[in-house]
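User: Reviewer 2 asked us to show a designed sequence for the structure in our supplementary figure. I'm pasting the structure tokens here. Could you produce the per-position amino acids so we can include them in the response letter?
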């Protein structure tokens, strides 16, 4: 089972790396409470062009699906309450989670 998971992960990494789609957002994209944002093109890379602000703000109960957060986005996603990340990938080597 572990080998199949590694194979699936490698296939997904290859898909993300070859995906030419990049969305540069001038401001954070707010996902309303209880709704789902699914990238129109699976595994599109979302970036803000810097690391100071989030790319997505998810309100209570919102879901984010099929996106890649760019490598320079230290503050990629803010959940304003509980939220769901479904097949969300980060182009980073270190993740930081803060809890309140």
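Assistant: Here is a per-position design you can include in the supplement:
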């Amino acid at each position: 089972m572990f080998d199949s998971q590694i194979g699936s992960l490698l296939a997904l990494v290859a898909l993300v790396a070859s995906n030419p789609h990049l969305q540069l957002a001038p401001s954070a994209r707010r996902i309303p409470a209880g709704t789902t944002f699914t990238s129109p093109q699976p595994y599109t890379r979302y970036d803000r062009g810097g690391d100071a602000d989030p790319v997505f703000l998810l309100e209570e109960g919102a879901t984010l699906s099929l996106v890649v957060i760019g490598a320079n986005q230290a503050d990629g996603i803010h959940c304003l309450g509980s939220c769901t990340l479904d097949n969300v990938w980060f182009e980073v080597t270190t993740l930081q989670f803060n809890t309140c």
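For the response letter, you might also mention the following. The helical segments are 2-18. DSSP finds one helix and eight strands in the chain.
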